């Protein structure tokens, strides 16, 4: 497929298309029109057509979209046809919840190491993955190709550990710590703030109340 610049807004919607198409596949739906997809996703059909046209438009007039083909193509665009080695730093509530979520593995995100400063956690396993203390991290990074480091530790710890991850060849950081990390430009970062989503929700509740 020809590579071209796709807007951030479209990229942001792709995981949602991917999820819906995955559900359709599970229900053995082979093709779907933009109108039907629009009803399910609460996105206008023209928006859907416009979005999917970015990738050469996988639809056919009068036939709709081939669900499996579209699912696979969007998966490729999102890089979900590959596997990624991932580590988690900080094995508290959040780190353990992520480590316990099997679906990430199904999407190709393989958790192969978990690290925490707390020596009491050393040797414990989560779904067969060992928790190690931070002092083992440099050697682990030397002997493994790590694509993604998930940071589920407090802010100061995250800031201290980030240079070590960069030095160890980590390509991307999935950052849950409440800090904007100072990283080289070739490191891919995705900051996740659940509280922002909650604030958005709070805004929408109040906007709805005002309409009454
Ligand atoms: N971004 C978000 O949406 C979001 C949501 C919840 C929590 N958080 C943040 O994520 C962090 C983890 O939250 P939690 O509820 O799991 O906390 P937690 O206290 O349960 O777990 C934190 C873990 O990090 C470990 N840790 C501390 N310093 C470390 C270091 N230098 N190296 C490795 N491990 C270290 C601790 O021993 C502990 O096990 C907190 O800082 C919290 O503020 C972010």
From TrEMBL:
NAD(+) binds at residues 90-95. It comes from the Bacteria. This is Redox-sensing transcriptional repressor Rex. Its main location: cytoplasm. Residues 79-180 form the CoA-binding domain. Residues 16-55 bind DNA. It is found in: Cytoplasm. The gene is rex. Keywords: Cytoplasm, DNA-binding, NAD, Repressor, Transcription, Transcription regulation. Modulates transcription in response to changes in cellular NADH/NAD(+) redox state.
């Amino acid at each position: 497929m020809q590579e071209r610049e796709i807007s951030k807004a479209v990229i942001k919607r792709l995981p949602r298309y991917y999820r819906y198409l995955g559900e359709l596949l599970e229900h053995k739906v082979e093709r779907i029109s933009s109108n039907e997809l629009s009803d399910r996703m609460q996105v206008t059909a023209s928006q859907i057509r416009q979005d999917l046209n970015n990738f050469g438009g996988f639809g056919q007039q009068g036939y709709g979209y081939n669900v499996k083909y579209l699912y696979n193509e969007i998966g490729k665009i999102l890089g979900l046809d590959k596997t990624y080695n991932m580590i988690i730093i900080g094995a508290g509530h959040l780190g353990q919840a992520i480590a316990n979520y099997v679906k990430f593995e199904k999407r190709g995100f393989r958790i192969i190491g978990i690290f925490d400063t707390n020596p009491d956690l050393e040797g414990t396993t989560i779904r067969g993955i060992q928790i190690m203390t931070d002092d083992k991290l440099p050697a682990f990074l030397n002997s493994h190709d790590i694509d993604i480091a998930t940071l589920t530790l407090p802010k100061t710890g995250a800031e201290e550990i980030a240079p070590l991850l960069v030095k160890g060849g980590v390509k991307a950081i999935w950052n849950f710590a409440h800090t904007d990390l100072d990283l080289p430009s070739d490191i891919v970062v995705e900051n996740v703030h659940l509280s922002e989503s909650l604030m958005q929700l709070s805004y929408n509740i109040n906007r709805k109340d005002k309409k009454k």
